[in-house]
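User: Run a structure prediction on this.
Assistant: Running it now.
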Amino acid sequence: MRYEKELMDIENKIKELEKFAEEKEVDLSKEIEKQRKLYAAKSKEAYSKLNDWDKVSIARHPERPYAMDYINEITTDFVELHGDRLFGDDSAVVGGLCRIDDKKFMVIGIQKGRTVEEKIERNFGMSNPEGYRKALRLMKMAEKFHIPVLTLIDTSGAYPGIEAEERGQGEAIARNLMEMSGLKTPIIAVVIGEGGSGGALALGVADRVYMMEHAVYSVISPEGCAAILFKDGSLAEKAAKNLKISAQNLKKLGVIDDIIPEPFGGAHKNPKCAEINLKKVVLLSISELEKIKIDTLLENRYNKFRRIGFFMGE
């Protein structure tokens, strides 16, 4: 984010002053308070002027809560299920049975890694076909036992490697879209960070689609869009603006149902608060969806996606 360095400099200065005051037993409370007020003022100014490119930076923040962070915090009795029963187990997609308070869920998320080893193991949150097929297998299991599905989306896109294409990446994504549109159980989808391309949409056909306040959701990354349209990847900021990639823009366009608030400064500043907000929305949504008959639910889901977008004549 454009303002991130300036805010980090002030934050580091506060820490240095506090450390110095403790070590030297000097009263620097007035200077520390002055820096805290400066930080608050600069933060307020920065977060009141965020553009879509700033949102991309926040959505990609390395300390932002990932799918497993939300699962570990808001669920109990989580039992992870593995494999697609066709090729193998994709670590980029995690899923299993759990409870959120007294409600049973099948939770499925796209997981990025934090350490170098985890990033490699999770393939940087970019799923192969077996990941999407695993997700579909778990969704069909949920349908069989009348358990609602919660998906947590955070990916720059499906893995574009030749091995993935050889194993049917496009078909796996397309099948998820088709099957989810007719899945006979309630589905809630939340974009918690990046929602990139078909890799995100493969878990995004839901009765309720939400985004965290500083998440992004788009058909392509700003860098990829800039490279294709402008022949210059450095124009990613311009591309992000044209893509209408932020939760606020997508709410206006009717692509998502609502926005889940984040703590001031982003979910990484107070993950606990972000997790509580997500949990509240999920429980409220499922209480509404469970009251709708399945036939009506499927019809509403179909019409929801048919209404997105419109044709402009000459």
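Residues 274 and 294 are 31 Å apart (CA to CA).
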